[in-house]
Write a structure and sequence with these properties.
By secondary structure, the chain is mainly alpha-helical. It has one domain (16-53, 67-362). Helix content is 68%, strand content 0%. It contains 14 helices and no strands. The protein is globular. The termini are far apart. Mean pLDDT is 89; it is low at 1-17 and 211-215.
Length: 363
């Protein structure tokens, strides 16, 4: 494993007297960035969708709204370009938050003496509790996940946070249980919990993280004044920002084009075809691949259900779309390992298939 991966702990002997100021400043920075996004943008937007109830709508292929209209009669290149621009416009606030919040999380967490325990299940629980209130989609959580991992959090914690942020947010869960039959809502919840407490600890067992070490981005000099602590923390934040941005931004541009290409190539009317094993498999793969915004999975699955799409296909959409994406996979691949990234994609698709087959069997 690369030496850029943070260690589980930082030697703290003799540095606590200077580090507490850095920690408070980093925490204030983290809280400020988070509060502005959650209060001004994310939770008002989610609550608006929740209050819309059965009237909730989505007009874009992989976005709720469209800046540029996309028509099937347009050439493929034009459709992909417009869908990509629509995605960037729709996700501009969330992605901006992610690129600023991820480095802040790295700068703060790196000041803590420990960011993981010896129990992989406990680490997964910590990751889940970290991700639930974030309120960001599977795409926006990817740069944050990179920041968490670089701070020294374990693989299972990072994956759990990335799965729980889009799927276990309290407003998204409320929408899921309000719009779908109880068995479908519970099936969605079960697949997410399996990912967090089954898949994440299992795949992390093969990661040799304990031997990896890096420098803390914060200067650990003792006896610093507030001015020195502020300077050091802001410098650490700048370094952390580059660490997240240099990987996350180019991969974001690549992922949106790939997502737009896939959604424009897949015939939407295919989900109205009779249910088949091949259909469930293909839908699960596409669902795990597409980079969609927060709560888009719930809305699209509900619209599909109300328009007569077979219930097994609805279950697949609900249990794969929005939990992972091509963007999540590429960031995890560059940050943790491509083995973990590919396994996570396979796990999401496989659980979506199981959900579809179970719904087909019992419906």
């Amino acid at each position: 494993m690369s030496a850029s991966v943070a260690a589980a702990s930082i030697p703290m002997t003799g540095v606590r007297s200077g580090l507490w100021r850095n920690r408070l400043i980093a925490l204030a920075l983290l809280a400020t960035i988070g509060s502005i996004f959650w209060i001004d943008s994310r939770y008002p937007s989610l609550l608006k969708k929740y209050r819309a109830g059965t009237k909730v709508q989505a007009s874009g292929a992989i976005t709720f709204d469209m800046l540029y209209p996309v028509d099937a009669s347009m050439p493929l290149q034009q459709r992909v370009w417009r869908t990509s621009i629509n995605w960037l416009n729709a996700n501009r606030i969330g992605m901006t938050f992610a690129f600023f919040f991820g480095p802040a999380a790295l700068a703060f967490l790196a000041t803590l003496p420990r960011r993981r325990s010896k129990s992989k299940s406990l680490n997964a629980l910590i990751g889940m509790l970290t991700g639930m209130p974030l309120g960001v989609c599977a795409n926006c959580v990817a740069p944050i996940g990179r920041g968490l991992y670089k701070s020294g959090m374990s693989t299972e914690s990072v994956l759990a946070a990335m799965f729980s942020s889009p799927a276990l947010n309290v407003v998204v869960l409320a929408m899921t249980f309000a719009l779908f039959p109880l068995q479908l809502a519970l099936l969605k919840l079960a697949t997410v919990l399996v990912l967090i407490f089954g898949f994440a600890p299992m795949i992390a067992a093969g990661q040799n993280e304990d031997a990896a070490e890096v420098e803390c981005p914060i200067d650990l000099t003792t006896g610093m004044t507030w001015g020195q602590a502020l300077r050091n923390t802001l410098l650490a934040y700048a370094k952390s920002f580059w660490e997240v941005f240099r990987v996350g931004f180019p991969l974001m541009l690549l992922a949106v084009v790939l997502g737009a290409l896939v959604i424009e190539l897949v015939p939407v009317e295919a989900i109205n075809a009779p249910v088949s094993l091949v259909g469930i498999l293909l839908l699960a793969i596409v669902g795990a691949f597409l980079p969609v915004p927060m709560a888009f999975d719930v809305v699209i699955a509900y619209i599909a259900m109300t328009h007569g799409v077979p219930l097994p296909y609805v279950a697949v959409i609900l249990c794969t779309l929005g939990i992972y994406s091509v963007y999540s996979a590429t960031v995890v691949g560059k940050t943790i390992s491509w083995r973990v990234a590919g396994a996570a994609f396979g796990a999401v698709a496989a659980l979506g298939m199981i959900a579809g087959l179970a719904t087909r069997m019992f419906s």
